[in-house]
Structure to design on (104 residues):
């Protein structure tokens, strides 16, 4: 199995939706642009958000087992995917990339 690099590319926060619909939280998302996590095969990285993992784990599993070219040419790099977590109040976009063990 190959390792998969998970890079936080963009974060957003929709205060208008939070104010209108969300109950107060004890712990908010703490992902920061530029953070990098590495999934060892299909295993969730330590301290990685469960909700974000639920959104991307199928893609990580596929990449870690050599799969590529999602949706027939969606990504310029066929060994990658751009996935967002399913938090409608604080969405985070992640770039998933298969790691080349020789150069990474």
């Amino acid at each position: 199995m190959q390792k998969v690099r998970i890079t936080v590319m963009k974060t957003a926060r929709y205060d208008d939706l939070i104010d209108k619909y969300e109950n107060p939280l004890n712990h908010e998302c703490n992902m920061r642009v530029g953070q990098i996590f590495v999934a060892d095969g299909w295993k969730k990285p330590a301290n990685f958000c469960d909700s974000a993992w639920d959104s991307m784990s199928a893609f990580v599993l596929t990449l870690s087992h050599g799969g590529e070219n999602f949706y027939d040419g969606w990504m310029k790099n066929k060994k990658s995917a751009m996935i967002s977590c399913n938090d409608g109040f604080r969405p985070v976009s992640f770039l998933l990339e298969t790691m080349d063990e020789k150069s990474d």
Observations:
- The two ends are 15 Å apart (CA to CA).
- Residues 4-98 form one domain.
- The first helix runs from residue 15 to 21.
- DSSP finds two helices and four strands in the chain.
